[in-house]
Design brief:
Helix content is 19%, strand content 34%. It contains twelve helices and 38 strands. It folds into three domains: 315 residues, Alpha/Beta hydrolase fold, catalytic domain (Rossmann fold); 246 residues, Methylamine Dehydrogenase, Chain H (7 Propeller); 91 residues. Helix 2 crosses helix 12 and helix 6 crosses helix 7. The radius of gyration is 26 Å and the shape is globular. The relative contact order is 0.10. By secondary structure, it is of the alpha+beta class.
Length: 689
């Protein structure tokens, strides 16, 4: 008989703005305390014992998921310089192998990096970045073996197959080459894991600091223009961007500011031959200051010599109903990714044929993704495509013939697309707003009666959970489960305003929207409360924690992966990684109005003596984004306060970070674990399984 874990309580009080908060589990943040590790192990053991009846089913479910995947697979090759580059996977190997062929695609293969060899001595392994020098002679790559998102950079001589003596530890993992083949760029993080410096380093080991960002709300990064002529260094917060640029042929030359920083002005820069193009949210040409009028972005242009804000001229005006989410510039055409009424689409502006048109897609509800387009002078644009029923595909669009050619669709063994249907519904919210939700299920389920339903959402940072294909999800669908992705405010499904109406002092809209979706699905017999399971991770875990406090009776069970649930305490602690930058998402609780609002929804601070849904919570001991103690404290608080006998499990990965296990098999194991929990909660496990 497993013993219910019970964390000890040590009196501790927080006092802010005249409010005293009791926090008896505050001590769980003492990572090196043996009692903390012992408690986490007790929770793990309890979870293992209580869910031991699922071990055989989890194993079978893992095998079922794996059987859908073609383990020996190869990506679509792309040409860079004299080589064709691609990656491939092999059966029973967890990681990819990166390869190339000289001259033609039929030439002998050269494996330039076998990640399986790098990872074999580590329980955790993540390849952060991979970059081949312009002369194709040297490979730059970064790895994290702890899960703390701190990467070590290595240089590999591709001719000699030998590592350089240059080794840079504790970087962000971001890497890139200049065009002189001698200098590469990387970034470092401060003690709070905020990327704040960009460095240049020669292959011989000499370092130069290019840029340092001292404002703790900002993080830095860099990228090379598709033209290969410029390197852009950016410093961004949730509200404001600023760019610098330099020549990619001489990165140690002086750094030039593109346009001075203004609070609220967000802009992104692309090089388009004789001009720069600037996607931005600034619409006030007269005063030269930012406004909120171009929330969905517009595009300006400027000369290469005069880049400050006052020299920008309008190229593509703002539209209230269309969000411009990205812009790519090539020598003879531009590609804009736009989102209208929740749906992405590619707009192609062809400067040779003087055309401005959209690429027609084969379905009405789908998602788009970037492809490998390393050549500035190309007339073919490569992109990714998929939907809830269409496996991920790679297409080439020819600008001259206007034809779209399928290069590859990810093989899914045994999958028959015609057996499934997907669609989007718009659901009335508490204040009259219509909330999008994407739905997929088998066509042969009985829609006249409520069915098991899995409802997922994220709803923060403006991230949009587009309707992607998942072969693992078939293990739900083929058991008659309806799968729904809610798109509440806080994401950007309906544009920038949709995001801004779900952050700061409007954050509760995210939770209200999710509840509205759940209630709609129940009222319209998609499901019932005793068949509804909800899920979210990280900031989506905050969503799960909030809604089960607000409306626990709506849900049969919930899965919260690495949930951000101790909102106020975390946002008050500037020593925790990433905290200060998060103030532009949630607000700064040092300000009284934000404090009270955040306190009113923080899941840990609002646990009530009520019955909760059955709950599975996961954490990562080395997670730098959501510290392990947040889910641990939350579970301890729930055990102390909640009523009823519903299941409550905490599973902490003792060697993983925010993203869980690594490698494709580790990912499938995590997926099978959560899916088995859900299928068991629905009572769908039979002797045949």
């Amino acid at each position: 008989m497993s013993i219910l874990p019970k964390a000890k309580q040590i009196p501790y009080q927080h006092c802010e703005h005249g409010v005293v908060r009791e926090d008896p589990f505050y001590w769980l943040k003492e990572r090196e305390n043996p009692e903390v590790l012992s408690y986490l192990e007790e929770e793990n053991q309890y979870t293992k014992e209580r869910l031991s009846h699922l071990e055989d089913f989890r194993s079978a479910l893992f095998d079922e998921m794996l059987s859908k995947i073609q383990e020996n697979d190869t990506s679509v090759p792309y040409k860079m310089g004299d080589y064709w580059y691609y990656s491939r996977t092999e059966e029973k190997k967890a990681y990819a192998m990166y390869c190339r062929k000289f001259g033609t695609i039929d030439a002998p293969e050269e494996v330039i990096l076998d990640v399986n060899e790098l990872a074999k001595e580590h329980s955790y392994f993540d390849l952060g970045g991979l970059a081949v020098s312009p002369d194709q002679q040297t490979l730059l790559y970064s790895v994290d073996t702890k899960g703390r998102e701190l990467y070590t950079i290595y240089l590999l001589d591709l001719q000699k197959k030998s590592l350089s003596s240059v080794c840079i530890e504790e970087t962000t993992g971001s890497i890139g080459w200049s065009e002189d083949n001698n200098i590469f760029l990387f970034s470092r993080a401060d003690s709070a894991l905020r990327p704040y410096q960009v460095w240049a380093k020669t292959v011989d080991g000499e370092e130069s600091l290019l840029y340092q960002e001292d404002d703790e709300k900002f993080r830095v990064g860099f990228y090379k223009s598709t033209s290969k002529e410029y390197i852009f260094l950016y410093s961004v917060s949730s509200l404001t961007n600023e760019y610098h640029f330099l020549s990619s042929k001489d990165p140690l030359d002086s750094l030039t500011i593109f346009s001075s920083r203004h609070l609220g002005l967000r802009y992104w820069v692309s090089h388009a031959g004789d001009r720069f193009l600037i996607r931005n949210n600034d619409c006030d040409d007269e005063r030269g200051v930012h406004t909120d009028g171009a929330l969905n972005c517009q595009v300006h242009e400027c000369s290469l010599e005069h880049t400050q804000r006052e020299h920008w001229s309008m190229f593509i005006p703002h539209r209230d109903d269309v969000q411009i989410t990205s812009l790519e510039a090539f020598s003879s055409f531009l590609v804009l990714c736009e989102r209208k009424q929740g749906q992405e689409r590619y707009r192609i502006i062809d400067t040779i044929h003087q055309t401005d048109e959209y690429i027609d897609m084969p379905e009405s509800v789908y998602m788009l993704g970037g492809g490998s387009n390393p050549n500035f002078d190309t007339r073919v644009y490569r992109f990714g495509y998929g939907s809830l029923v269409s496996p991920s595909s790679t297409f080439d669009f020819d600008l001259d013939s206007k034809e779209m050619e399928l290069q590859k669709q990810t093989p899914v063994r045994g999958y028959e697309k015609e057996q499934y249907t997907c669609f989007r519904i718009m659901i009335p919210g508490h204040d009259g707003e219509l909330i999008p939700a994407s739905v997929v299920h088998r066509k042969d389920i009985d829609r006249s009666i409520p069915q098991p339903l899995y409802l997922y959402a994220y709803g923060s940072y403006g991230s949009t959970m587009d309707p992607y294909f998942s072969s693992s999800r078939l293990s739900f669908l083929d058991r008659g489960v309806i799968y729904v992705i809610a798109h509440p405010r806080g994401g950007s499904m309906l544009g920038r305003k949709w995001y801004e109406d779900g952050k700061f002092l409007k954050k509760k809209n995210t939770f209200f929207d999710f509840i509205s979706v759940a209630e709609f699905l129940i009222e319209n017999d998609y499901t019932s409360s005793d068949k509804l399971i909800i899920s979210g991770g990280s900031a989506g875990g905050l969503l799960i924690g909030a809604v089960i406090n607000m409306k626990p009776e709506l849900f049969h069970a919930a899965i919260a992966d690495v949930p951000f649930v101790d909102v106020v305490t975390t946002m008050l602690d500037e020593t925790i990684p990433l905290t200060t930058g998060e103030w532009e998402e949630w607000g700064n609780p040092k300000e009284e109005n934000y404090f009270h609002y955040m306190l009113s929804y923080s899941p840990y601070d609002n646990v009530q003596p009520q019955e909760y849904p059955n709950l599975l919570v996961t954490a990562g001991l080395h997670d730098p984004r959501v510290q392990y103690w947040e889910p641990a404290k939350w579970v301890a608080q729930l055990r102390e306060i909640k009523t009823g006998t519903q299941d409550l499990y905490l599973k902490t990965e003792m060697s993983a970070g925010h993203m869980g296990q690594t490698g494709r098999y580790g990912y499938l194991e995590d997926m099978a674990y959560n899916y088995a929990f859900a299928i068991d909660q629905w009572g769908m496990i039979t002797g045949k399984d």
